Amino acid sequence: MKCIIIDDEPLAIDVVESYLKQLGGIDIVAKCTNPLEAITLLNKHKVDLVFLDIEMPNLSGIDLVKSIENLPQFIFTTAYPQYALDGFNLNATDYLVKPIPFHRFIKAVSRAKEKYELEHLQSANGIPVTLGTLPKPENDFIFVKSEYENIKIKTDTITYIQGLKDYIKIHVIDTNKAIITLSSFKEILEKLPQNNQFLRVHKSFIVNINAIKALQKTKIVLHDDMRIPIGETFKKEVLERLGV
User: Fold this and answer.
1) Following DSSP, what letter does each residue of the chain receive, concatenated?
2) Domain around 76
């Protein structure tokens, strides 16, 4: 893998460079303290990974990411943890807060290498297979990205899924805290097993049929007594699927 380090602090660049030398397997093709010059470097060099600071003069790391088309993988390296949500929204491979612990750096680089290897698998006809086009396994679990980790969730433990604008909340049995992931309903439905176990009952809700305890006129009651509204446009399909 080839990378570029972008940070307005030379000492911060030295830390990342030192860590990379200890790990091996990633070549540094350029280092840059000026984010505007970094755009030229990114257009000039073909790289697989960018280590990128956020708070920089003239152009922030977040704005730099937004201004580059076909940007390779990038890992934010910043002293400001409050930008973590922005990093998540921009699909950063990871988000490292300075001073960066070496063990945390190792984890971020391992994640980048794994993603790189997956995205460069070749199919039989020589077309690169990306993470988004890997064959969907027929398993009893799914993986969703949450807080820079891919979380494994057994589908039988999902009670219901709630949509919140660009986010999805996955509610799991015996868990007080829902798993939040950046996803659309279409994407999450494609991940779920195609065995009629899950039913969309509202524009903002998907339920696990096995978690249903009762059916009311306008609501579905789950085993934990959670009541999920039934959308008018979904009512006919809900009644047919439940045999009511």
Assistant:
1) -EEEEE-S-HHHHHHHHHHHHHH-S-EEEEEES-HHHHHHHHHHS--SEEEE-SS-SSS-HHHHHHH-TT--EEEEEES-GGGHHHHHHTT-SEEEESSPPHHHHHHHHHHHHHHHHHHTEE-TTSPEEPGGGSPPP--SEEEEEETTEEEEEEGGGEEEEEEETTEEEEEETT-SSPEEEE--HHHHHHHS-SSS-EEEEETTEEEEGGGEEEE-SSEEEETT--EEEPPGGGHHHHHHHHT-
2) 2-122
Per-residue b/e over 139-174, b at no fewer than 16 CB within 10 Å? eeebebebebeeeebebebbbbbbbeeeebebbbee
The total number of structural domains that make up the chain: 2
pLDDT class for 126, splitting at 50, 70, 90? low
160, 74: one domain: no
Least confident of 98-112, 128-142, 218-232: 128-142
Residue 124 reports pLDDT greater than 50: no
Which among 89, 122, 155 is the end of a domain?
122
